[in-house]
Amino acid sequence: MKEFQATITDLSHDGKGVTRIDGKAVFVSGALLGEDVLLRIRKRHRHYDEAEVVELLKASPHRVEPRCRHFGQCGGCSLQHLDAESQIEVKQRVLKDNFERIGKVSPALWLPPLTDDAWGYRRKGRLSVRQVAKKGRVLVGFREESNPRFVADISQCEVVHPALGPKIGLLAELVGGMDAATEIPQIEFAAGDDTVALVFRHMSPLSERDQAALVAFGQQHGFAIYLQPGGISSVHPLWPEHPRLAFRIPSSDAAFDDVELEFRPLDFVQVNAGMNRRMMARTMELLDPQPNDRVLDLFCGLGNFTLPIARRVADVVGVEGEHGLVERAAENAARNGITHARFEVANLFEDQRHAAWAKQSWDKLLLDPPRAGADKVLEYLPHKDTHRIVYVSCHPGSLARDAGILVEKHGFRLSAAGVMDMFPHTAHVESIALFER
After folding, report:
1. Which residues have a Cβ under 8 Å from the Cβ of 240 and sit 6 or more positions away?
2. Which of 39, 133, 195, 225 has the most CB atoms around its CB within 10 Å?
3. Residue 176 carries which DSSP code?
């Protein structure tokens, strides 16, 4: 296939280099801003092409040697070849551009970026499993960078929790030796402070031999083993009989106790434990909870924010769409001796303005929505008596859109915003913003 020489003029939202050939956008895997490359087109589309680097002609001064031997093949990370400081700069630029382009706003103050350990940080994830006849063995890993239909052939992962990351190859050997080797499509992992759980999805019943092999693997390596024969509700422990997953959120104020949250292996928790603690401290700083405050926490999940807030305010209500998470949030409140946090189940992508909690008066509002954002909520909230909002976002585009709504429709000002490096070495942009009026 024909090769082209080009200069990379930008980085895409997923960390690929961007150039133009004959006026058409080309996204180049493994290329960085400012680099001159010899590239080869690997896939053509109507409005853009995808390419790979054949030869690096002029390297960026910010290029570094990737730590992971599988970088470039595995699609789990896209920015390991860019130094840490530049990764943050890229994410800050993405957030700034989204604010200006979509929301037509900019913060009065840019917060310093939040960072934590860049390696072994991932405590939650899904590993794909596939028996590959051509290789004569089972592969366990994330999807390939160049073709997401395929499982990357990896033996270890530098960003996964250190109890599991070096043992990806051992997982592949385990599944490869099972009777049900072709019947296990995925393995999910979840790490608490003291326990790492592996959830094996299996499409047919496991033999006694296979179950014994899983138990022996868990005992040898210190993993709790769960089975998932069907939907989420089918997940159950194989060994030990009653595993416990939990993590603590240290209080940033010595006057208050830590909070411990128990969770189930498929529950949503923040992927990066270290960043979650830093994010919590910044959230408390921006929300500034006071003893007489009434706070509404929307998209509250397990109570990750709700319970630490409850230690500091008069009243807090957490609202979440998943019934199981709300149940566990309430259980966590009771376990931590917190009596004035309440939880409600509600689909926040539907109109909830007639719900009791939506009609009440709230001094402060915390939003932590999924990628779609909170625009449906902002059709009926906040009320005029809400004077402070902290918005935690996993998608800069939806945050920017919602920032425009809060400023234009509800009379808030965007007082501060900044990025949080929840997913180092990826192009994912997590951010936090403060709105006041």
Report:
1. 224
2. 39
3. H
One-character DSSP codes across 224-284: EEEEESSSGGG-EEEESSS---EEEE--SSTTS--EEEE--TTS---SBHHHHHHHHHHHH
Give me the catalytic one of 105, 394, 416, 419. Answer: 394
Measured at the CA of 366, the angle between CA 360 and CA 369, to 5 degrees, comes to 110
Q: Give the whole-angstrom CA distance, residue 403 versus residue 409.
A: 10
Could you tell me the two tokens for 101? 């382009």
Whether 394 is a known active-site residue: answer yes
- Give the dihedral of Cα atoms 218, 426, 113, 273; nearest 10 deg: -10
- Listed in sequence order, the residues at least 6 apart from 230 whose beta carbon sits closer than 8 Å to its beta carbon are none
What is the distance, to the nearest Å, from the Cα of residue 284 to the centroid of all Cα atoms in its chain?
Answer: 20
Alpha helices in 62-124 (DSSP H): 84-98
* 180 neighbors 229 (Cβ within 8 angstroms): no
Instruction: Compute φ and ψ for 398, nearest 5 degrees.
Output: -70, -35
Q: Which of 15, 83, 21, 9 is nearest to 49 (CA)?
A: 21
Question: Residue 299: what residue type?
Answer: F
Q: What is the pLDDT along the chain (437 residues), one digit of tens a residue?
A: 789 999 999 998 888 999 999 999 999 999 999 999 999 999 999 999 999 999 999 999 999 999 999 998 999 999 999 999 999 999 999 999 999 999 999 999 999 999 999 999 999 999 999 999 999 999 999 999 888 899 999 999 999 999 999 999 999 999 999 999 999 999 999 999 999 999 999 999 999 999 999 999 999 999 999 999 999 999 999 999 999 999 999 988 777 889 999 999 999 999 999 999 999 999 999 999 999 999 999 999 999 999 999 999 999 999 999 999 999 999 999 999 999 999 999 999 999 999 999 999 999 999 999 999 999 999 999 999 999 999 999 999 999 999 999 999 999 999 999 999 999 999 999 999 999 99
Residue ranges for the known binding site for [4Fe-4S] cluster are: 68, 74, 77, 157
What type of residue is 90?
V
Distances from the Cα of 232 to the Cαs of 50, 235, 264, 321, 367, in angstroms?
36, 6, 10, 16, 26
